[in-house]
Amino acid sequence: MTSNLITPVSAPTVLDLFCGAGGLSLGFKRAGFSVIEAVDQTAAACQTYQTNFGVAVYQADLTLPADLPPADVIVGGPPCQGFSSAGLRRTGDARNSLVGVFADWVVALRPKAFVFENVEGFLTADNGDYVMDLLMPLIEAGYRIHLRKINAANYGVPQHRKRVVVIGGLGWNPTFPAPTHTAFGAPGAHLATTNLPLTPTVEEALSGLPAPTHLPPGNPLG
Predict the structure, then answer these.
(1) 80 part of the active site
(2) Which of 19, 71, 80, 119 is catalytic?
(3) Considering Cα of 7, then 56, then 29, then 178, what sign does the dihedral take?
(4) Is 113 helix (H, G, I), strand (E, B) or coil?
(5) What are 84-114's pLDDT values in tens digits?
(6) C-beta separation of 181 from 153 below 8 A
(7) How many whole angstroms separate alpha carbon 117 and alpha carbon 24?
């Protein structure tokens, strides 16, 4: 007898390393993924993440051994202060080595895919040595890589925020999401797209928010 029951397909799982407040987790959650755990060394980041998502947060130094769960996808944005044009870009900044730590965890846990995000200065810091620290272990482990520098404004974010995004697939070729919006106001931003909706302005993005108030939980007037 043929059953009419359909076995539900569970959502692919995500492990968020160097999670911060959870920006990457938010995107994957909205895309239908199930975030099973997040990790960060900073207590304030873990508290913020827990408040935002209610997901298990593991406060840990990822340069040390840790008991992390397997997941379909590993995402992460290691600290960028050592690469950022807004910072001092110190060559010896210990945080720069966390790019390689991210790669090591991907190799150890072998997810089906990974997504890495960082500032554009990551590409040129120390003549590109950190790019190789990220890519070489992953390529040797069998991951196929797609690296691109994007402007978040071309994806509907009301801010010219340039980032390097690396997508990897274990034994399969990842593709990159096509831009969704046309942006103006930064060199080359309008060249990324044609015949697409304009990126929302900050005013449009903030419209509809409640009026500021002195009452808890925030004090936006202060």
Answers:
(1) yes
(2) 80
(3) negative
(4) strand
(5) 444 444 555 444 579 999 999 999 999 999 9
(6) yes
(7) 9
